[in-house]
Design goal:
heterodimer; A: 70% helix; 3% strand; B: alpha+beta; 2 domains
Chain lengths: 379, 646
């Protein structure tokens, strides 16, 4: 009976497969796109890691874990997320402070918390979900559009964890966390005038940040972005080599496993942040367009879920998750192709690396939960 | 909690949200199109440029230095070869902290400040990335072992095995072979593009001597290898290879036995010996003492060694045979005599009275003979044999400087000989034009008179003296001296022609009597000789003495003593060698320089058993197996890609 109604509600044609997915609280098109993306990513990773099967296996295990968590998250109804959002956010904030106090150092940064017996993890990853959930929770109780007071509170909710993460320092994650919160402000109808004022303030603050806030290595990244040829063997090396890899790939690429830039070690970070250059070199423009199309399908599907969501919490959270995912894609491709300065943002679900893949898939679990737990409401 | 007010807002909120969502889609699309445009720019429009960059990354063209040609003496004795050498080189791109690495290396191998200075200079000069920069050559086995033990902890530190030039005879041939040493950035700048390409793999080039003069021949043609490398410069595979053409081996006219004999005969004295085969102009010996160890210069001489050579009062780096300019003294008397005979100002019958001095009629100035009491009645034969100055004062004055200069030029006096060695000095054959040009003064009679006994302004190199003696032995036919056994160029000087050819024989006889005659100035040289020597001694004044000053060689410092000179050719009737000897501050020519000349002649003309055996002209008939054969095994071992010489 309830199922029948849901069939009427659903905008896509409903077949038996969909109804099975629906029963499992999964969104079949989104799931199919994610699996396609992950499998494609594994192929690129195999080449980027010099045909290292072990790397592919480890990444597959993470994907398996990620999809498992996705499934679990999809079963939890959105109202539970809304209920737990403040607690979740609070715990995340405490962990972030703990990281700064007693976190584990690695590669010049302090990003990890070591839990004896379990291993270490990055609390900043939690914030990628906790911040949008918290902001969405805040607006769920308030009338839209956001007023100035709301804006200030949301800015605090967003920028305090972002600042803590930036202190670690992890500029990439801080950027994504901040974006997750701020995007909700945008979707929640922040007036264009305020947006213009914020952009103006940012353009004034940016040079000040450069001189007074950024770490030496971050400043170098900006310098390198502005003029990569200034130090071709040093800081500019990454970006020159990645542009060379992409450019030399041409329309159809040099062929899978045949990229000279990556396989002869000219391309640094080829299996992590710069993996797009491997794709661009080996599969060419065609590969990049296919990848971009898959990403846009996922983003589009996420926005559609947001569009169809029935309460403010759900729609804001869904929009934030979908748009943050796009920010990932844009920032990574932008930096690898030399449009943006190098910030440590991985190519989602393609770059080698565990935590971000699991967090991303968890987010999609929440999206699927939002989509499949809709209430019966007249149009 | 929900009021109707908020419920009413629900629609408005939905509208706001929908509009913003549409805006989001628009922004996502615009940003995505930006990325697509960027990719089309990189992969479509700029594709060719990045393909080139990618290939440049991956494919490197490496020059393969050709093995340098070897140098042999006329009998095939190896005079310069290539030996394996282990050197320490650094790849700066792989070294995180250069100063720390240098400090660490200094603790395990001996590094002079000069080594590090040179290294830093090379680091500054233009170079390809990932190219090793040499730090120290000639590592000892202990040092190689020490580096090998710690090498894994020091990235970018390499031990390179490179063939380097070796001169087995060292100091003996230093002034004729010269040496090679490292090519500097300035050398490369002076080359044209083709040469630069040819030298791009070469580390050494000839600096002086035969090594310099025959640089192009000895160097060969560089080969090329296109290799695929990874980012750390490691070669993964060879894509294409053009082997180098090895440098040509060079066989010299030089006879190492004659060279050694002349060297030994000079002993510890400063001086020069040049021996030329008058039959073809081949240089049989080319000695300048003291010499230097050319092997020290190959990999870069240390400051200390160089300072030692530079500050030595004996000037071991100075090539006396080639660049030393000395008054020829009496050694030119036979040629000046021939000039007088040809001009008709004298003949073999004409005699003069020598009271021990000469005075131009009506002038006060007195020109002394070396023998104060004079030689009495003197003719040309006796004047040559006893080296009578007065006879030549008189004859030279009547001959005049113009005819004298013209005739002596045919014997290469005051002209470059054209020998196949770089930086030859020219000497001075004074003339009216020369004196006006350089001194701005008119020519005086006194100048002519001084010139006619090889003094005054006249200066010659030992090489010029040897060549003039060879031309004398050839009866005036010019020849260009050659160190290498390669066809000499045509002489640029005119032959010296005698209207009465018998003058040649009579002058030769006078010179024979210098040694073999009972009253000859060098009669002591004839002891035990198995062939006839035609020679002439000479003494070059280091400074002029006032007319009445008593001259005592014992009383003045050794450095102010006269230079001893001797020229000779033999066998007199069929000359096969002409030699010139200079002994700086040696005193009397006959006694100091004569025996050196005799030893040189003996080394060439006598066989091992001490019997007269005049060597044939040019190439010996038997070619030793080593000549033209494959490159010696050591060199091949360290240059495995290089094919053997064809």
């Amino acid at each position: 009976m309830r199922r029948d109604f849901l069939r009427q509600m659903s905008i896509q044609p409903v077949g038996s497969a969909h109804s099975l997915a629906w029963r499992l609280h999964l969104d079949a098109p989104l799931l199919a796109a994610l699996i396609t993306l992950c499998l494609g990513g594994l192929l690129v990773l195999y080449s980027a890691g010099d045909s290292n099967m072990e790397m592919v296996m480890r990444q597959s295990l993470r994907f398996g874990l990620g999809f498992g968590i996705l499934f679990v998250m999809a079963q939890i109804p959105p109202r539970s997320y809304r209920f737990w959002a403040p607690a979740f956010y609070g715990v995340g904030l405490i962990l972030l402070v703990l990281v700064l106090v007693m976190g584990t150092h690695a590669m010049g940064a302090q990003r990890w918390l070591t839990i004896p017996g379990i291993g270490r993890f990055q609390p900043s990853e939690i914030m990628k979900l906790a911040v949008p959930a918290m902001v969405a929770w805040y607006f769920s109780e308030r009338a839209l559009p956001a007023r100035l007071r709301d804006v200030l509170i949301v800015l605090a909710i967003t920028l305090i964890p972002a600042a803590l993460i930036a202190r670690q320092p992890d500029l990439g994650t801080a950027l994504l966390v901040a974006a997750a919160g701020l995007l909700i402000l945008f979707v929640a109808g922040l007036s264009w005038r305020l947006i213009a004022v914020a952009l103006a303030a940012l353009s004034i603050a940016a040079p000040l940040m450069y001189f007074f806030v950024l770490h030496g290595y971050q400043r170098r990244r900006v310098d390198t972005f502005l003029n990569p040829e200034a130090d071709p063997l040093g800081a500019g090396w990454n970006i020159i080599q990645s542009k060379t890899a992409i450019g030399s790939g041409g329309i159809t690429g040099k062929g899978w496993l045949n990229g000279t830039q990556s396989r002869l070690d000219f391309l640094p970070e080829s299996s992590t942040d710069f993996i797009l250059a491997v794709l661009g070199e080996e599969i060419g423009l065609i590969g990049i367009l296919l990848l971009l199309a898959t990403y846009l399908f996922i983003v589009g599907r996420g926005l559609l879920i947001s569009w169809q969501a029935q309460d403010n919490f759900s729609r804001l959270l869904a929009a934030s998750l979908a748009l943050t995912f796009f920010i990932y894609v844009f920032v990574n491709i932008g930096m690898v192709s030399g449009l943006l300065p190098v910030v440590g943002v991985p190519l989602p679900l393609v770059s080698f690396g565990g935590t971000s893949a699991v967090t991303l898939l968890s987010g999609f679990g929440i999206l699927m939960s939002i989509h499949t737990h809709r209430k019966l409401l007249g149009h | 909690m929900r009021s109707p007010m908020t419920f009413k807002d629900h629609h408005r909120e939905g509208r706001i949200f929908a509009v913003r969502l549409i805006w989001s889609v628009v922004i996502v699309v615009v940003l995505s199109l930006t990325l697509v445009a960027r990719m089309i720019w990189l992969q479509g429009i700029q594709h060719d440029r990045y393909t080139t960059l990618s290939n440049k990354n991956r494919v490197q063209t490496q020059a393969i230095a050709p093995p340098r040609g070897l140098i042999y003496d006329r009998h095939g004795v190896l005079l310069a070869d290539n030996q394996p050498d282990f050197s320490l080189a650094l790849i700066p791109e792989q070294i995180p902290d250069l100063d720390a690495t240098l400090a660490e290396l200094a603790s395990i191998v001996s590094l002079e400040s000069g080594d590090i200075d040179r290294f830093r200079r090379r680091l500054q000069s233009p170079r390809r990335p990932w190219e090793p920069v040499p730090l120290r050559a000639r590592l000892t086995e202990t040092e190689i072992a020490r580096i090998a033990v710690t090498q894994h902890a020091m990235p970018g530190v390499r031990i390179d095995a490179d063939p380097i030039r070796h001169y087995p005879y060292g100091v003996l041939l230093s002034h004729v072979l010269g040496y090679v040493n490292r090519i500097s950035a300035e050398d490369i700048e002076q080359m044209d593009a083709d040469e630069q390409a040819n030298y791009s793999g070469t580390h050494y080039a000839g600096r002086i001597g035969v090594e310099r003069h025959y640089e192009r021949l000895l160097h060969g043609q560089a080969g090329y290898r296109k290799v695929e490398t990874n980012a750390r410069g490691r070669i993964l595979r060879v894509l294409e290879e053009i082997p180098p053409q090895p440098g040509q081996d060079l066989r010299l006219q030089l006879d190492i036995r004659v060279q050694q004999a002349a060297w030994d005969a000079l002993g510890e004295r400063r001086g020069a010996v040049v021996a030329i085969d008058p039959r073809d102009g081949g240089v049989l010996a080319f000695v300048s003492r003291p010499g230097f160890d050319p092997n020290l210069f190959v990999t870069g001489i240390s400051h200390l060694d160089y300072a030692g050579y530079r500050d030595d009062h004996d000037q071991p780096l100075f090539n006396r045979a080639l660049q030393g300019q000395y008054p020829p003294g009496s050694t030119v008397k036979p040629i000046i005599g021939l000039a007088g005979l040809q001009a008709g100002v004298t003949d073999w019958q004409r005699t003069i009275w020598d009271p021990g001095f000469y005075r131009i009629e009506g002038e006060q100035r007195v020109f002394r003979d070396w023998r104060r009491q004079g030689h009495g009645w003197v003719d040309m034969h006796k004047a040559v044999m006893q080296s009578c100055d007065t006879y030549f004062y008189d004859m030279g004055f009547r001959l005049g400087i113009d005819r004298m200069a013209d005739f002596l030029a045919r014997f290469s006096i005051g002209l470059r000989t054209g020998i196949d060695l770089p930086s030859e000095a020219r000497g001075i054959m004074p003339s009216r034009e020369w004196k006006r040009g350089t001194r701005g003064q008119a020519w005086f009679h006194g100048d002519t008179i001084n010139t006619s006994i090889g003094q005054g302004y006249m200066l010659t190199t030992p090489l010029q003296l040897a060549l003039s003696t060879a031309i004398l032995a050839r009866q005036g036919i010019p020849v260009v001296p050659r160190v290498a056994q390669l066809a000499p160029p045509a002489p640029t000087t005119e032959p010296a022609v005698m209207n009465t050819p018998s003058h040649w024989q009579r002058m030769t006889q006078a010179m024979v009597d210098v040694i073999h005659g009972s009253a000859g100035t060098a009669r002591l040289l004839s002891r035990g000789v198995q062939y006839q020597i035609a020679g002439k001694s000479g003494t070059a004044q280091v400074f002029s003495l006032a007319n009445d000053e008593e001259y005592n060689a014992e009383e003045i410092a050794e450095r102010l003593r006269d230079h001893a000179l001797f020229v000779a050719f033999a066998p007199a009737e069929n000359p096969a060698i002409a030699v010139a000897v200079l002994v700086e501050n040696g005193g009397g020519g006959g006694s100091a320089a004569g025996p050196v000349a005799r030893a040189t002649l003996d080394a060439w003309l006598l066989n091992d058993a001490g019997e007269l055996a005049v060597p044939p002209v040019g190439l010996p008939e038997t070619v030793p197996a080593t000549l033209g054969g494959p490159v010696p095994t050591e060199a091949a071992l360290f240059n495995p890609e290089t094919p053997d010489a064809p």
